Amino acid sequence: MAKYLAQVSALACVSLAFSAASPSRADVKLRLEISVGYPVTDLAYSPDGSIIAVAVVKGADQGGSPPLDVRLFSSTDGKLIATLKGHKKEASKLAFVPDGRFLISGAEDGECIIWDVKEHRQVASLKGESEQVGYVAVSPDGKQLAICDVKKHVEIWDIASRKRVVDFTTGEGIMCLAFSPKGNLLAGGTENGALRFWDMRKLKKIRESPSDDRHTKMVRALLFTSQGKELLSAGLDGRLTIWRVESNELILPAGEMHLSDTPETVAASADGRVIVFGCNGGLIFYDSSFLKERYTLPGPICLSHIAYETDDYIMATKFHPKKNELIIGGGDGKVKVWSDPPTFKK
Q: Could you tell me the maximum CA-CA distance found in the chain, to the nearest angstrom?
């Protein structure tokens, strides 16, 4: 069970305004724990929240053959629903299409497999120029699949036809991707700390973050706000940035706000009120209302947050699509389902 560490107010102060929120006092409840036997590299909830998909890799101290499957579990009782076999290398990234019919998994050899979730079978294998899949993202309308590798490619595939539409050669590794809520924009975080943006209607790169406004280390997590007007990025330097998308305006420069740990993943609750970062030593929860209030009011800002320590590093965090529930996975080989994770009340 995760151990409550501390409630911290005034974690970061910058020249903006915010009326600090108070986190709820109720501790999180570990509703379900699923042991998978290997470090968890990614998790995904099905759109209706009934299924948890799990990708795993062999740990450094584990012998034998690596696990080459993707596993589906019931989110209600944790029972194994199916084991999806077909990858030749370990799968590391997962994404459901919005209607829940297909699950897409990306592996360390650059292959992506499209699975029929109901029939538990492979329906297509996609292999382009990617040498090792670093991230997979599905557009909100379910028509496009974006794949990045850790070398120099971002590929866009048409899911229905299983054909590659375009290959953006990036010249550096892209470590994470995010579609805007309308699907018209794709953002990518690079190994050198930059952000890149592609227009998904014209299928071309439109801009890149200036050299003065980059993270000092690779970008590990991206999150659009629910309206798509802002983009939050988190890097291995522990810094956060927030961009106003339309004007390409940096409204929270790198260096003004630091996490207390190194982030690996980020997720937002279904109502958009809570943001959680999965880090090397645990979880950090933030009240997202500062994204709205900070634009118009002058003065200092104090961001309330709660930190929880976990048994091992966190590689995947996902909120339930319909209720206040969170799944986490990492190096301890367990998938933990938390009910009633922290919320913030004014």
A: 59
